[in-house]
Specification:
Blueprint (H helix, E strand, L loop, with lengths): L6 H9 L5 H21 L8 H21 L7 H16 L13 H23 L15 H40 L7 H29 L4
Length: 224
């Protein structure tokens, strides 16, 4: 996809940095989140104000979702889920800024997050249940193992693939829609398309975060 102008791409060319746009804008998102976290956590107050007042309800909402879906043990993995949520949401929202490219419009970025969730799911499963965690791959009855093992393996491999393609398809599709309307009706774009972009950004963040919690919750539960 050809963008009219990406300011970080221009900077990379000047500095002779041979990296993709998704990498450059991932670094930007990381910088934004690091600065935001430092500002928000500096001088924490019992009665929040400023950025702390803005972020606390979001943190409480994520924590509540984790407890409802993953149970009490899920709180241990709050940093992972919250980091994924804030990163994806920021990546999605910068797509609405002219000359910015959303890293989530690249399958590479999404695959990295999906594989992280995939690996953490099984690491957590082994941590909680030991090697007995892998018994659920064989099914409830031992003689069904030859049938159940391939089914379970395919199902688990489909998880990161689904997470990657769902987020990529929606964000890349949104980029295409914006580009089409910019050339066809530039005066109309800022209103309905931008509002739709905000909605898509939040929905896709919620879906990725929700599925990640469901996968990890399944690993935390006692193996059957």
């Amino acid at each position: 996809m050809v963008h009219p102008f990406l300011f970080l791409e221009w900077i990379a060319e000047k500095l002779h940095l041979h990296v993709g746009n998704h990498v450059m804008y991932t670094w930007l998102v990381m910088a934004i989140l690091i600065v935001l976290s430092l500002v928000a956590t500096r001088g924490l107050k019992l009665v929040p104000n400023g950025i702390q007042n803005f972020l606390e309800p979001i943190i409480d909402m994520i924590e509540g979702m984790i407890e409802d879906i993953m149970g009490p043990k899920g709180k241990t993995y709050f940093p992972l889920i919250a980091t994924i949520a804030f990163f994806i949401l920021t990546c999605n929202l910068i797509a609405l800024v002219p000359s910015f490219y959303p890293p989530t419009a690249s399958p590479n970025t999404n695959a990295a997050m999906a594989l992280t969730v995939f690996l953490m799911t099984h690491i957590i499963g082994v941590k909680e249940h030991g090697l007995g965690y892998f018994k659920h791959f064989t099914g409830p009855i031992w003689w069904m193992a030859p049938l159940m093992i391939p089914i379970e393996i395919i199902g688990h491999i489909a998880r990161p693939l689904s997470l990657t393609l769902r987020l990529f398809g929606n964000m890349y599709g949104h980029e295409i829609v914006i580009m089409v309307f910019i050339f066809m009706a530039p005066m109309i774009v800022p209103v309905p398309i931008m509002l739709m972009g905000v909605l898509v950004a939040f929905i896709q963040t919620y879906v990725f975060m929700l599925l990640s919690m469901i996968y990890i919750a399944g690993a935390i539960e006692e193996a059957h």
